[in-house]
Structures are given as structure tokens and as C-alpha cells.
Amino acid sequence: MIKNRFFFAIAGVLALVTLYFVTDRLLFIAHAEKTTGTVTAVDASNGRCGGSKRRRSYDCTKFHADIEFAATDQSHTFSVSAGDARGHDQPVSRARHQVGDAVAVVYNPDRPDEAYRDNWFDIWSTPLFAAFGHLIALFGSMKERRREENP
């Protein structure tokens, strides 16, 4: 069944990484507190968006928002993606968040620097991508290695 040991080893490592991230997020959720943060700054940078191949990618402006929230005795700030817009030098008014917007935040009261927007994707994206990489490596381990034929 296993035909490529290298990919099988990678799949094993990624399974452990996924297990770590899932456990970390479950512990986070068990102790997390919810609050409301405020967007304090929005900035933009030019870049490339879209696919990984040059012909599918396009010029875009990427937006980032700083969110400040109060945790126990002091305020903390973290940065999140605020979307993107096609074309370079787009105005920050096209960002998903604007200065002054209220944003639901979930954070670890023991380590307030560990904070996320309170939505499923922001909390679970890292374990999800690790699990996806694990599955790709696992399926890759079941394929025969391509061998170059000598004429």
C-alpha cells in the first residue's frame, strides 16, 4: 500500500503537527475569553494575489488592520488581514475593516498576545492547513515514484 516512504514520513510528521495544532486550539477555546476590539489602524501594501502561477496571479493591494482590545489590566493589539483589492495603490476605504470598527475578539487570558478574530476560520485555519498537507502527503505516499526510463 505504501509505495513512497519519503512522503509517508512527511505525512507522519504532518499528522503530529496537526495533532499539536488541534490540541492547542481545543485548549485555547476551553480557556478563551471573548471581548470586542476596535480597529485602530488600516494599512495597505502592493503585492500579487491569486494563483501561484504567474499568468493566474494579478496585481493587488493587500490590507491589514490593527485591532486593539482590553484584556484584564491592559490593552493589547494584534494584526489581521483586512482583504485585498485588484490593482495597485487602492485606497484603504476598500478594506474589509475601517478605523473605528468593532470586531469580535477571542483571546487567552493567561497570554493575551494569543488572540484571534472570533470566527471559525481565524481560529482553525492553521490546523486545517496542516491536516490538508498531511492528507496530500499521505496520498502521495501511495503513488509509485516516477522513474526516468533510460533509452
In short:
This protein is of the alpha+beta class and 151 residues long. It is 32% helix and 36% strand.
The average pLDDT score comes to 91
Give the total of domains.
2
Distance between the termini: 29 Å
- Structural class, from helix and strand content? alpha+beta
Q: So what's the overall shape?
A: flat
Query: Helix fraction?
Result: 25-40%
In what range is the share of β-strand residues?
A: 35-45%
Q: Count of DSSP E strands?
A: 5
Explained architecture:
The chain is an alpha+beta fold. It folds into 2 domains: 1-31 and 119-144; 33-107, no CATH class. 32% of the residues lie in helices and 36% in strands. It has 2 helices and 5 strands; from the N terminus they run H-E-E-E-E-E-H. It has helices spanning 5-31, 120-140, and strands at 33-50, 57-71, 74-86, 102-107, 115-117. Strands 3-2-1-4-5 form a 5-stranded antiparallel β-sheet, with helices on one face. A hairpin with a 7-residue loop joins strand 4 and strand 5 (115-117). Helix 1 (5-31) runs antiparallel to helix 2. The longest helix has 27 residues, at 5-31. The two termini are 29 Å apart.
